[in-house]
Amino acid sequence: MTTAVADLTRPDVHLHIGAERLAEGSAGTFDHVNPASGKSDKTIPMAGPDEVDRAVAAAAEAFESWKRTAPAERARLLHRLADLIAANTEKFGRLGAMDNGTPLGTVASLTEKSIAWTRYYAGWADKITAEVTSTLTADGEFGYTLRQPYGVVGIIITWNGPLISLAMKIPPAVAAGNTVVVKPSELTPFSAELFADLVVEAGFPPGVINILPGDAASGAALVEHPQVKKVSFTGGPATASKILAACAPTMKPAVLELGGKSANIVFEDADLQAACGFGTIMSVGAMAGQGCAFPTRMLVHESIYEQVVATVKAIAEQIVVGDPFAEGTFAGPVVNQAAFERIQGVIAKAKEDGARLVTGGEPARLDGELAGGFFLQPTVFADVDPQSDLAQNEVFGPVLAITPFRDEAHAIEIANGTRYGLSGYVHTKDLKRGLRVAEELITGEVLINGAANLAVNRPFGGLGLSGLGKEGGKAGIEEFLFTKGIGIA
Ligand code: NAD
């Protein structure tokens, strides 16, 4: 069943600078393409360096009063924003599906998480405390610390979770007393447009949260702007390297949330149905495999290897790929033509490298207006060499690599054998082993027996090519505060 995707009206997108809502930007326009049909569906204005400059000036001006705004008031505004996101859940569902083809059901669960992240950091706004570091009687002088906001934070996000990425970054930054200029991905402008309108409706003072549609050049201008005191970025490692290089001359700090090649270790005593269900759905189903922390390498004990490969195949073949707006669709298209071609190239190379294609490997052919969409079959390879390209590099598409291991030490060695370090997954009924492996994995988080991603109170963020710094939990708000030490003689 398909719905009339083309009938859904795409909202006009604006540059949100201070109290202004501009329909045009000085960097021209970008043609948004509906990934489900392959056809252009909206012209988006792009911010140039001029508008970046104006947005940063608006944020810098707003900072002077926002940093003095009572923390309880910051909390109230963030709670109001969370209420408004909740009230607009259905609308965000449609906009998310229009943005990047994510099915309505998946967007709904990400919207729920976005509300949770916004409320969680609303709760932190009035709970930021500091320390007494020395006392007059013991040390001869009184010392203490202050936790202070940086000022204007430049936020740059990618396209796979256009709302959740906003909710992971903006609430902690403003709860801590910073103001922000946000550049969403040019590929996904619609969710951010509604978010910007809700910021106004919630009553945030103009300039506290500025949202600018823009491309790589707008992002670069934001990073380089001298009044931007910290950068928070979600995207790929190649862009992150450029951002770090741009930050280097002025030692500007940056949080970088990048990609992954996360291992999912399935031991012989695991609940196989649960482990295979999780490992398959979360790698070749959900978001068409376009998730940074997804378990994209499945490492399986050799004693259960063929059984697992067969179970994964059966589950992958049941995943319904189709219209993001249709009931029952689990996986939509990949984000654009470039990704569609790139992922097919990865599949061809994996075959050449000798991996065994278990299922998929081709575009998923759909009819009618979806015939030109960027749909791929859920694709599973077994016998993947841990050193091959498929095992070493993030695909960001619906492709799973399965590799056998001999014993616990071998599994850990393979799991730790990439340049990434975002997430690790373990499936075993032996909790002691699960905890032991969790200590050995060189990753920012480890999730045992199917624990969910993106729990707001648990820090998230990796090592190596997976990035720097944390989002989530107390660590997530601390990224937006610097510590000042004060001594009194
Ligand atoms: P990308 O790095 O190409 O783009 C991300 C953003 O950076 C976009 O808004 C883009 O316009 C902007 N940009 C591009 N060049 C820039 C520059 N020189 N200076 C400043 N900004 C610039 O990333 P992508 O390919 O769109 O996204 C996919 C990547 O994002 C994957 O690697 C994925 O794993 C990662 N990701 C990470 C997380 C996480 O939280 N760890 C979450 C989602 C996605």
From TrEMBL:
Gene3D superfamilies (alphabetical): Aldehyde Dehydrogenase, Chain A, domain 1, Aldehyde Dehydrogenase, Chain A, domain 2
Domain of life: Bacteria
EC number of this enzyme: 1.2.1.-
Residues in Aldehyde dehydrogenase domain copies: 26-484
InterPro entries in the record: Ald_DH/histidinol_DH (IPR016161), Ald_DH_C (IPR016163), Ald_DH_CS_GLU (IPR029510), Ald_DH_N (IPR016162), Aldehyde_DH_dom (IPR015590)
Catalytic residues as annotated in Swiss-Prot or TrEMBL: 257
Class of enzymatic activity (EC top level): oxidoreductase
Keywords of this entry: Oxidoreductase
GO molecular function annotations of the record: oxidoreductase activity
Disordered: annotated segments: 26-45
Similarity-based family: Belongs to the aldehyde dehydrogenase family.
Name of the molecule in the record: Aldehyde dehydrogenase family protein
Lineage of source species: Bacteria, Bacillati, Actinomycetota, Actinomycetes, Mycobacteriales
